[in-house]
Amino acid sequence: MREVVKFVAKGIRKNKYIYLLAFVILLITSSLLFINNAQISSTQDELQQAFDKREESLDFLISKTLIKKRYVGLPENQQFALDSLLVQENYVKRISQRLSEGDMDIAKDNLAFINEYLDYRKYNFIHFENEDLLEIEKDKLNDLAKHDLPFTEQQTPVKTVLFTKQLLHLLLNPLTALIFLLMFCYKYTTDERNRTFDFLKVNSLSNPAIYYGYVFSFFLFMVGYLLFSVVLAFLPPLFTGNLKTVYYPLEVAIGGNTAIVPAWRWLLYLPIGWGIFVSLLLVVASWLCKQRVSLGVLAGFIFLPLLCLYLLAEQLGFSMLNPIHLVVGYDASLFPSNQFIIYLVGMLLLLLILIGASYPIFRSKRMLLRMKGRASGRRPYQPKSQLKLIQFEHLKRRRDGRIFFVLLLLTGISVGTSIFVNQQYKSVDGKIVKAIEELQSFFISNQFKYKLMEEEEEVEKVDSTDETPLVKFSEVMEKGIALLEEVKKKANTPAFHHLYRETLKSLGPGNSQSYKELESNQWSVTTMASEEQQKLLKEREMQPWPIGGLWISNFDDPSREPSNELASLLKMVQEENEKYGHSAIFTAFFYMNHNIVWSVLALFVFVLWVSLAEEHRPDRTVHFLVTKPLHLRSVYVSKWAYNLATACLFFLFSGGIAFVVSWLLGGYGEADYPIPTYAIEETESGEGQFFSPVDNVYFSFDSVQGMVLQSVALILAQIFFLNSLFSFIGRWMKNQYAVVIATLLITVAGYLFASQYPSLYMMFNPFLYFNTWHVVDGWQSILLESPLVNVGTGCLVLIAAGTVLFLVGLIPNKGKVS
């Protein structure tokens, strides 16, 4: 086995793509460092704002209490409370001063302030802090003080192990695990095609030695990748002397509660869990390779069980027997306790058992899986006379592995989108809990103001015993805080989202006011569409997608606002009303709305499509073609037809798989979910349309299913046009790589030109219609101020432009083929 390991490892080291992999890792690391370093410290700003608010509350409360003391005196408990407030003020001012100087080493002073505030509560005076959040903050501060650590940047870290954690999440994830599996399969099939196994057997090596050698050589390669990634990720905290930040406490949401977990648990779990997961995949893949199955069958035998394990985890929750938690869904279940060690040990034992069980499989000379179409049973290649050129192109792509590679990546993109959407939906409960806590803090702040006003009334009306309205307001705030606390306890239950929305309605009297009762200068699309959509949802008994009650229109997009302050406010409102779901329909909406299809089109151009330029370089086969009774025009047409057919089929196939996966995760969804669509002018009937005086635009509601189907039709037209452009460029160039680059550059330039210079004549620019969702929802018609910009026009323009390019490509070249 040692000889095989050396042989395979030598082949891996000589592969030029290994150095490319190292370069990509270095590029990702340096890019992340640069991006994080360029960002403003959000953690420091949050701390500064929090303590400025505390200082303001304390100053206000102390001044009012001193006024009361001067005029009517203070009871003993309130005098003690005043003394405590003065001590708290001293701590808060000291902390604010440090933060303004850029020093975030405030843990001890912050902890002293919290302890003083907790003692202050026993005096039964005015409360001004959310005690639940204060307990979480205290736990975090205890950990910081214990290890003598300051606060540090959490969102965009640079010098601490939080950067290490962030980078390891990028380098060690399910996608990189599947890439490793793909590399193993490619290496195996290449060596099998080159008869390397026969060479090894001639040298008196047994089957177990050969297959174990292949597996262990990739184990070593994986360990090398892990060590390189981990060492690289630890360099910034190592050189800046911040290795102690491995103990930095991080918050993990568990239902309606929050646990404090040290960062070192992620740093330990991520590489070990990822390594065990990849090792399990390699062992199972080696079993299938021993059976000499095709790459497609191998992928099916591995990805389908992985998908089933993920579906089981979604339906049944966390399980110590499910290996999918090595890379997905482990934070809340494992990290709050030391249970992650038991889980890792259990998965390591499973790996050892599988390695041991591999011996009889590797030693056996029988095929446990009898696949049809192997060896002598395979029918020889017999092309049909009418489609022989297309079949020939497909045969070339299949033999060099591109068909499998593209299908695998397309399925990964589509299914990965489904899983990402589902994971985002799972995190929505934690975001709602944070929103509840912020609302509780708002109520506490209001209650604090009402209490102060009560104290002022006591000073002015000493002899009065009547209950004032301020007391009632304070009680309302108290009930609101208690009600939100009860809602928070329902986190991770089926009724949580509905209960949260109903609670918001009951707490916000302004929410019941219709926009029709407001002045017309407040009738924005966001306000009107949100209310009208809520009515439709109530009629159809559907749950709204946004967390809050607003559907934010494109007019309120933060990127359109030149003012930074207003843009930040719009961004906050947008985040509070973010859309979440996990049904098949919602996933399709997310896919189209975020233009994920761009990555699919780029993949077609980069990997799948062929052109006449390929016959010149990199493989100079054009001279062979001219010796055959063929016109180059026929070759050009066959390549164009092959590109179009495969791209459409692959797009629909991968999209169908993702749709089924999303269906299994969250059901089909609400096909009639109303989505606002824009129009520059009123339709003839005007039925179902609304006019916004603020934004000077009409809008109506269309079903999400119909809009998704329109998007699919527009994408197929995009494929038709892009294929014609690619084939046209390849007709006149003699280098395939140059064709790819030219196609991408022209497409990007055309799209940017259409986006930056909107005008009526741009409706004839085919690149305008690559912004799929904004064409479907009518936003492009608003930007160009033309009702003609729609899906029908887009399909016509794309198909017409593609047809013209295709026909021009049929013009014969007067020069020689060479």
How would you describe the overall organization of this protein?
The chain has 818 residues and is mainly α. The chain has helices spanning 2-14, 16-38, 42-71, 76-100, 107-120, 131-146, 161-171, 174-193, 196-202, 207-239, 264-290, 295-316, 331-334, 339-363, 388-399, 402-426, 428-460, 469-488, 496-507, 525-540, 564-576, 584-593, 597-608, 622-626, 632-666, 704-732, 736-756, 772-776, 779-784, 791-809; strands at residues 249-254, 257-262, 674-679, 690-692, 697-703. The protein has a 3-stranded antiparallel β-sheet. Strands 1-2 form a two-stranded antiparallel ribbon. Strand 1 (249-254) and strand 2 (257-262) form a beta hairpin. Mean pLDDT is 81; it is low at 371-378 and 462-467.
